[in-house]
Amino acid sequence: MFDIKWIREHPEEFDNGMARRNLEPKSAFLIALDKERREVEARAQELQANRNKLSKDIGIAKAKGEDADEIIAQVSRSKKAQATTEEEARIKMEELTAALSIIPNLPSEVVPDGADESDNREERKWGEIPSFDFVAKEHFELGEALGLMDFDLAAKMSGARFVLLSGTLARMERALASFMLDLHTEEHDLMEINPPALVRDIALYGTGQLPKFGEDLFKTEQGLWMIPTAEVPLTNTVADNILDCNDLPRRMTAMTWCFRSEAGSSGKDTRGMIRQHQFSKVEMVTISKPEKSDEELERMTSCAEEVLKRLELPFRVVTLCTGDLGFSARRTYDLEVWLPGQGRYREISSCSNCGDFQARRMKARYRSEGEKETRFVHTLNGSGLAVGRTLVAVLENYQQEDGSIIVPMALRPYMGGLEVIIADG
After folding, report:
1. Which of 57, 98, 120, 400 is deepest in the core (most CB within 10 A)?
2. Model confidence, pTM
3. Is the pLDDT of residue 269 over 80?
């Protein structure tokens, strides 16, 4: 969400940011809408001032023994006119807020310009891409052959884009989540949270999913929304708060189920676990002072990278270009893990600095020591990691010719010492 005052004072900078996102300029429209709002509010204030004057005139007239009926009638008419004008001002304010709420964040100056993911900038690579003496299989071929991954049974119960894991694959998914949480809480100094998986409209509005992306979400008949990521409840822990500067940065992590309708994903990743309606993810969220948020982004990204390094999974880090940047983000790193079955890198984590974009929507601020004024915090979020996609990466990178799966060393303590997953394991 943007401060309309800032847009009035920096229209060219705002429109340049929109252009970098390949969007039409918006400042003229927003400034005109805001002008209408302010003019109506000014009329309401004039009417109020006039009423105050007339009320005093009534007292003066009565004190003099004069007839005040006409003045009283004027007050009544003024009151009705003011109410009408205030309602008009409220509607204008709602129109302005609605217009501002669907405008994405402006990209950071360090973000490369581009149209789509093909213009993303590779920053670094880690690990050796495995070489097999056989044709590498995709994760769903491996999981189904093991008898531990069932898409048909899940579809019978729930429809497409669901999976039922059993035996050692179910245990491995649980092991991955536990491993990630332990790493983040014990070594990366993140506080573990167990948040609600159902939230109100206001929570999704605060992080930017609503109103623009409602079709990507699942909503209950009771009016609550199923979270698409733990970013939503974790970030909203500071909504409507004024934090002490000494409490920042606030670093959190959570493992939750996530639910996405995958609207617009028809035909994409229709087989396997890459794009599911329900999946588990370990999320990281940081609430930071503005001047420290880019530093925190680097820290958060390194935390996600460390998960992949401990699992010895080859990956690369890319900076998203302006055309691939998420709605709330001003700067994003994607971590892409190598999948031998597909012969390419696939996203497994996005780490984003949202600046004060979400904070303005949530009214999340902080106060520096000895100061009266408050400032908006900066919010950051990142996957640390998507658990299902990490399972996919483990299956494909640790597969053997007979279809068995070597258990990564980092996971063996969570798997009861198991070294290899075999059929019906």
Report:
1. 120
2. 0.92
3. no
